[in-house]
Each structure stands twice: as structure tokens, then as C-alpha cells.
Amino acid sequence: MQSAHVMAMAVQKLYPDAKVTIGPWIENGFYYDFDMEPLTDKDLKRIKKEMDRIIGKNLPLVREEVSRGEAHRRISALNEPYKLEILESIKDDPITIYHIGDEWWDLCAGPHVDSTGHINKKAVELESIAGAYWRGDERKPMLQRIYGTAWENEEQLKAYLHFKEEAKRRDHRRLGQDLDLFSIQDDAGGGLVFWHPKGAMVRHIIEDFWKKIHMKRGYDLLYTPHVAKADLWKISGHLDFYKENMYDQMSVEDELYQLRPMNCPYHILVYKSKLHSYRDFPIRVAELGTVYRYELSGSLHGLFRVRGFTQDDAHIFCLDDQIKDEIRGVLDLTEEILLQFGFEKYEVNLSTRPEKAVGDDDIWEKATSALEDALDDKGWTYQIDDGGGAFYGPKVDIKIEDALGRKWQCSTIQVDFNLPQRFDITYVDSNTEKRRPIMIHRAVLGSLERFFGILIEHYAGDFPLWLSPIQARVLPVTDAQVIDY
């Protein structure tokens, strides 16, 4: 954080009209957002030079606690409107301020080193400039975001920069173009993926493998529509809780329809299409279902953040006492699929009941215990995210580790007590009474688009033979070449 503050101080020294907003630390570095004139890479060099000067002066970093009123007075005197808005969002008193010498200060919780001289200027690098809307809202001002990184020594910085170069070499957007795998066409719109013949061949291989392994493990395949009446999304709750990520409704014969952001309601309708007995369970249905979600244009990123994507979705309807076995089955299936694609290391998290949740305590406890027991049976190490579950049930999230050691969230398993209630799905038990089944949501790859992007970067475009779109090539050889050989 101290490096971020030094950078902000340097910016305002060089550009006195720049307004400071937020400057958090992030993985491998930090950033600061400024309301100011557009910057260039040349400006980054000027800012870094000024940072070196501030570091060299060994200015003390001093923590001060002030009242909310005093903080408001000081910020108003500086004419920093963004700081005032940040101050309003801070709930705790007193307000903490950090000073760099007598020359600059900002709101910050800290902690920091004692002085700027403790920062190794040779281990600090300003990396890039990007645009960012204030508070992530496209209706608010566009800010200049400066990314930087700071390390203890030069060796660590060099290792990080080497990692960045390797990640750049593996960037799926560049390789996707170089290998003619996919494109995103401006004429069609941002975030919409065009799979070219070679990329489509890889996708076909993945889909074929995915379908076969699911059918082998007792899943029934589904194909469902891409749109539905808006009323369906009202029942599911998406129009109440997810509307900002959904596209506008369309009118068809005086009725409103909606592009689907999820596949779950469709699978429930298939379940409801006939009566079920307790003898039918577990019921496993799976679909490679394409969904559409509105994402801000500034957040779109190759195959990793798109507006239309295909989820490897599946839902399991089961009885209370079947949860553990079904979860264990999903874990086994997940391992088999991920190993096939070359992913052997995982980070596993189990998220438990949040403060606000639906469902009785006993079923939450039973479902959470079933997830824990299944993970223990599997022998996987996992972390508990206490209170991090969805409001409708506990969940397990699995992150895979790629060739560069980066972790990617792909697989998820969620127990759901909410949708079965919303859609009033039932079965007849052994006493001919109606009961409500448990619903488990699960995806292994997450989405085909994002997983394909991960695969491209994991293998640097050099896919294993079984996935390669070109597996053999005939090379004509002349007599002269044979003799030379």
C-alpha cells in the first residue's frame, strides 16, 4: 500500500489537477484510479522517476486518527470530491489518515512501513494504464487507472516480470488469432465468440468426450430453448435478483420473452413434466446449454469474460439421504474430467450457510455434513469459507492450477433448497405422500469458452494429440531431399 501512496503522491506532484479516488493492493501489486487527463506510457516513466525521488527523500509515513468532521473539513479544503464519497462509505470512527512527510496524505487503514526509504525503488515497477469507470458504473466518469507492482528485492521483481512475459506469450487472445481458433467480431458485438474451424474441432472433441463420460455415469442429456417467457424468470427469482445481468425483454405475440441467463429453470420444467416416485431417484440431467448475460463492455476479456457462453451444466434431483453419495460421484467425475485435460492440482473451498438463507437448519446441517463427508472420503484437502455459501444452499468450489501456477475457478457443486420450493417440485414417497426433493447444481468445466481459453494458455497453444485440431500432415518429399537426408 505504501508504494501505491507514493505513486499517487507522485501523480499529484506532476499533475496538480488530478483527483485521487481509490488505490487498493491486488494480487502481485496495486493500482490507483485518478480523474485526470489521459496518460501514455511516456507519462509512466515520468511518474516512476518522481516516485524514486520521493523514496530517496526517506519521508516518514505517519498514521493519524481524526474525527469524521475533521476528515470532511480537510478533504473539502483539498477539493477532492471522490475522497468525500469514500469518506461517506466508511462506517467506522475515528477516520484513519496516512501522511507522507508534510507533503501529502490520503484516507487509509494501513499499516505501512515507517518511511518511504524502506521501499526498494529498484523492486517497484509501473506496469500499465487502463480506463476504469468510477465505482465500476458506466454512467459515471471514466478514470485513469495506473497498475504497479512492488517487491522486496530486484530478484523477485525479475521473476515476476519473467512470469508476465510468459503469460503474455501464452495469451489466448493472441494465440487464438495466430492459430485461427476463434474471433470476436466487432460487427456482431462485443463478448460474442465465433469458433473458427480449428477451434470448433477442439470444441467438438471436448463436447463429445463430455457427453460420453456423462452418459456412462448415469446422466441423461437435455437440449432446451435459449429463450422463455419472462414469467419463468419471475418464478425463478432472476428478475428480482439478477436483472442487471439479463438482456432486455422482447415482445412475441403480445407476450414478453427473455434470453436465458441460466439453465436451471429449464431442467426443473423437464422434471415437472411428469410425476415422480421416490424409486426414480437420483435423477441426473446434463446439458451443454448456451446462456446470455449482460456484461459491461469494459469488463469483457477474450474468452474469459463474454456475453454468450455455453455452460457444462447438470442438475441432480435426489433424496436427503442420497446427497453424500451424489456429491462424491460429482467429485469423482470432476477429477476424471480434469485429469484428462492435464489438470492435477486443485484448490478446494467449502462454503457454509450465510446469515441470510432459505431452508431449515436441519437440512442445511445435513447438506453441509454431506459435502464435508464426501470431500473427506475423497481425501481432498479443503478450506472452510464460513458463511460464504449461497442463500439457497452450501457449495464446493474447485480451482484448477495451470502450467504457470495460476488458479482458475471452474468446477462448482451447489446444494439448492430454494428453486425446488419456488417451482413447487415434488415426488411421492413410500407412504404416497408428497415430498420435496433436493436439487444439486454442478458444472465441471464452468463454460466451454472460458475453459478453452484456459486450455490455450495452459498448453501455450500446443494441445495434446487427442485435442489437437490437426493431428497429421502429409509432407511431399523429392528424391533430392531423401538423398540429402
TrEMBL record:
Superkingdom, natural source: Eukaryota
Pfam families: tRNA-synt_2b (PF00587), tRNA_SAD (PF07973)
Gene Ontology process terms (BP): threonyl-tRNA aminoacylation
InterPro entries listed in its UniProt record: aa-tRNA-synt_IIb, aa-tRNA-synth_II, aa-tRNA-synth_II/BPL/LPL, Thr-tRNA-ligase_IIa, Thr/Ala-tRNA-synth_IIc_edit, ThrRS_core, tRNA_SAD
Signal peptide start and end residues: none
Chain ranges of the Aminoacyl-transfer RNA synthetases class-II family profile domain: 195-476
Ranges in a coiled coil: none
GO MF, one annotated term: threonine-tRNA ligase activity
EC number: 6.1.1.3
CC annotations in GO: chloroplast stroma
Keywords annotated in UniProt: Aminoacyl-tRNA synthetase, ATP-binding, Ligase, Metal-binding, Nucleotide-binding, Protein biosynthesis, Zinc
Reactions this protein catalyses: tRNA(Thr) + L-threonine + ATP = L-threonyl-tRNA(Thr) + AMP + diphosphate + H(+)
Family the UniProt entry places it in: Belongs to the class-II aminoacyl-tRNA synthetase family.
Protein name per its UniProtKB record: threonine--tRNA ligase
